[in-house]
Amino acid sequence: MSTIQVEVVSSEKSLYSGEATMVVAPGLMGELGIMPQHAPLLTQIKPGVLKINLSDGSTELLYVAGGILEVQPDKVTILADFAERSEDLDESRAEEARKAAEEKLQNSSDSDLDYAQAQAELARAVAQIQAIQKLRKIR
Fold first, then answer.
1. Is the pLDDT reported for residue 19 higher than 70?
2. Rg of the chain (C-alpha set)
3. Cα separation of 52 and 11, whole Å?
4. Residues 33 and 3 sit within 8 Å (Cβ to Cβ)
5. Spatial distance between the Cα atoms of 64 and 73, rounded to a whole number of angstroms
6. What confidence score (pLDDT) does residue 97 get?
7. DSSP readout, the chain?
8. Torsion-angle region of residue 66: left (phi > 0), alpha (psi -120 to 50) or beta?
9. Per-residue model confidence as pLDDT tens digits over 98-127
10. Average pLDDT of 62-72?
11. 8, 58, 99, 122: which has the fewest Cβ within 10 Å?
């Protein structure tokens, strides 16, 4: 079976480095399926579940919150703004982050920066909650 090298890194750590038969990533326009010998591609990714199918039939699941995906015929590189292993996600922590972001939106000052930051925090928390729910169904 043909494989492709996959690297997933965030600003904080490297989350995955190895071979895969397929990668499914949350692209801005929908999910992207990448297999060995895929055409070169450079695109943004949105918050969601990154699925890495391994040659032994198992699957590595990660949560990514934005970033860049680069595809070369023999390698996929994901530079995530934020990434976490699926088993490390905490739904109660994500729910608290969502509530805190909603409060910030309601109490934000007139500053556009405060409002934009609160919106980004809310979007990230909501995406993480949705990813946790999706991962629950996959497992």
1. yes
2. 16
3. 20
4. no
5. 22
6. 78
7. ---EEEEEEESS-EEEEEEESEEEEEETTEEEEE-TTPPPEEEEE-SEEEEEE-TTS-EEEEEE-SEEEEEETTEEEEEESSEEEGGG--HHHHHHHHHHHHHHHHH--S-HHHHHHHHHHHHHHHHHHHHHHHHHHH-
8. left
9. 788 788 777 766 566 577 777 777 777 777
10. 92
11. 58
Structure tokens, 75: 């390698």
**Cβ 72 vs Cβ 37: under 8 Å:** no
Tokens of 83: 């990434």
Return d(Cα 52, Cα 17) in angstroms, integer.
11
Q: What percent of the chain has pLDDT over 90?
A: 45
Average model confidence (pLDDT) across the chain: 86
Report the sign of the C-alpha dihedral through residues 127, 130, 136, 139, in that order.
negative
Write out pLDDT tens, residues 39-62: 999 999 988 889 999 999 999 989
Q: In 10 A of CB 118, how many CB atoms?
A: 19
Q: Does residue 2 contact residue 10 with C-beta atoms inside 8 Å?
A: no
